[in-house]
Design the sequence.
């Protein structure tokens, strides 16, 4: 399979996700997306803009590309934003996977969890269990993310033969951890404020 | 065939991956050729490339020549990724390089330095190391087409890199590692008894290692031959050692190259020019004598600094060819690649 498709898709979706003008009408949003698709191929010093972006972020995980696609669909008002609970379930899932993978694979232990992604039987079984949990929680989007990433791995649509590279990348990990921690901080701040209020108003 | 990187300085934008072929019949090296540049790599891998380095080359049992080298897109050497290319006509033409995906962390920080091992199933064992938050050694397992299908950790932490792996039997192998930690600096050794799948925790062995690369091959008596800087500091002497398979007995065989000063102290530029000119002539032979003045005219910061000019013999690469000869190449004073070869008879004499 041509291995360059992903950098063009990533460039267009990422640019569309962070570009201003969210309140513009749908045709204008679509035009913006088409514009970013064309911009991805623009050559600068012998490399396309998409290749320049890839220089710094490599090929994102399939889950990240799907999340960017979802953000694009929300922006085009083709789907409704996810509820906060569903989002937290997804953040928690990827934060846990990142905590399992990164510290050990960066040399903390003799055990390298990245290895589990090559002969991926046990990792596939673990992800099947996580997918089942998300399904039982009614998180259809979370289920779709993991199932599509697994299918992408089965069809080897990326240059990597490692299952992890379809599931997770450092940017997704950082985003999920950031969102989770800031959400927790907000939760405890609100809870603390409520407790103080209760103490003050008690007879 | 030998490969190296060359340019105005290590990490320079003009660094290229170059090669030359050795003719055993003529006992001479042919013209240099360029195998990869930043530009050719950039086009092939669809990424900006800042610098190139650490090429290695190896011939598979079915005569496919593999070239592996690192490229950096962002940052220093810690941002390296490994590129692979092959030739099915002994180096006349090459495939486009392809980047190996070796880590989940934006595919950075895997470097190659040691000789690959060819497994009986056609797989390629590639000794690599990680150099980002830590420094540790790994053994990548590639299929016969050069795709990564597994990887095995040899060490962990921040203190070991650049493994040199020597297969001693179909299942047993030894990895010798460069030590990059504090305290007493010795070569580290790790062993595998299952074809490279698991490795023992590295232990220090006898020779010193001043945080410098080393190279090893199997010897006919089922031990190892190791080229290394057996020094506590600097790289002013490169020695060849023989050791048994358990690495408990080490025998110095020959000092391959060394500074005239036994402590490796620097020389004034004037004295240095005289000594290195003489060494150049003895290493190169009369046919390259015409290049001496040109070489001496370009002695620069690679060998001389404010404190003086130093001798450095480093980064050995060691193979045993199919005709039974041993070939060792190493960096000679950051200026040339020096080739040394010897046969079994010479080795037997030294080992007695």
Sequence:
């Amino acid at each position: 399979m041509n291995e360059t498709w992903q950098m063009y898709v990533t460039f267009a979706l990422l640019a569309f996700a962070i570009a201003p003008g969210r309140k513009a009408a749908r045709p204008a949003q679509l035009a913006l997306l088409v514009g970013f698709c064309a911009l991805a191929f623009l050559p600068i010093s012998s490399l396309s803009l998409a290749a320049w972006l890839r220089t710094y972020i490599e090929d994102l995980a399939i889950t990240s590309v799907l999340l960017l696609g979802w953000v694009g669909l929300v922006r085009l008002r083709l789907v409704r934003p996810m509820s906060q609970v569903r989002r937290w379930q997804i953040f928690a899932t990827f934060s846990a996977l990142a905590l399992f993978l990164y510290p050990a694979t960066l040399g903390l232990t003799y055990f390298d969890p990245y290895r589990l992604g090559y002969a991926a039987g046990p990792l596939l079984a673990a992800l099947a269990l996580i997918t089942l949990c998300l399904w039982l929680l009614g998180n259809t989007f979370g289920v779709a993310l993991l199932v599509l990433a697994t299918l992408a791995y089965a069809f080897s649509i990326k240059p990597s033969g490692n299952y992890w590279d379809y599931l997770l990348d450092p940017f997704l990990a950082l985003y999920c951890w950031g969102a989770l921690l800031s959400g927790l901080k907000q939760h405890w701040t609100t809870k603390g404020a409520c407790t103080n209020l209760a103490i003050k108003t008690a007879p | 065939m030998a490969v190296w990187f060359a340019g105005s300085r290590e990490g320079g934008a003009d660094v290229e991956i170059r090669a030359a072929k050795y003719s055993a019949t003529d006992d001479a090296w042919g013209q240099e050729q360029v195998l990869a540049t930043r530009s050719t790599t950039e086009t092939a891998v669809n990424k900006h490339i800042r610098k190139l380095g650490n090429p290695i080359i190896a011939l598979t049992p079915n005569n496919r020549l593999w070239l592996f080298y690192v490229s950096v897109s962002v940052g220093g050497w810690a941002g390296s990724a490994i590129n692979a290319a092959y030739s099915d006509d002994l180096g006349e033409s090459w495939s486009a390089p392809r980047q190996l995906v070796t880590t989940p962390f934006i595919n950075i920080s895997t470097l190659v330095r040691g000789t690959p091992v060819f497994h009986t199933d056609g797989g390629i064992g590639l000794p690599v190391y990680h150099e980002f938050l830590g420094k540790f050694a790994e053994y990548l397992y590639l299929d016969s087409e050069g795709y990564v299908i597994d990887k095995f950790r040899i060490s962990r932490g921040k203190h070991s890199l650049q493994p040199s792996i020597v297969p001693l039997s179909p299942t047993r192998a030894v990895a010798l590692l460069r030590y990059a930690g504090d305290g007493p600096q010795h070569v580290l050794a790790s062993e595998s008894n299952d074809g490279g799948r698991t490795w023992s925790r590295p232990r220090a062995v006898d020779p010193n290692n001043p945080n410098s690369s080393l190279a090893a091959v199997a010897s006919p008596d089922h031990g190892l031959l190791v080229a290394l800087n057996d020094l506590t500091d600097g790289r002013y002497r490169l020695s060849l050692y023989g050791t048994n398979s358990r690495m408990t007995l080490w025998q110095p065989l020959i000092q391959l190259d060394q500074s005239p000063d036994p402590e490796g102290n620097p020389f004034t530029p004037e004295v240095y020019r005289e000594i290195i000119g003489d060494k150049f002539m003895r290493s190169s032979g009369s046919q390259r004598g015409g290049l001496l003045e040109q070489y001496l005219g370009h002695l620069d910061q690679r060998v001389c600094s404010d404190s003086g000019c130093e001798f450095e013999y480093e980064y050995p690469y060691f193979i045993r060819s199919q005709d039974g000869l041993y070939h060792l190449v190493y960096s000679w004073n950051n200026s040339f690649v020096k080739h040394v070869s010897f046969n079994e008879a010479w080795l037997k004499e030294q080992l007695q």
Observations:
- Chain B touches chain A through 35 residues (CB under 8 Å).
- The first helix of chain B runs from residue 38 to 45.
- The helical segments of chain B are 38-45, 269-284, 292-297, 344-351.
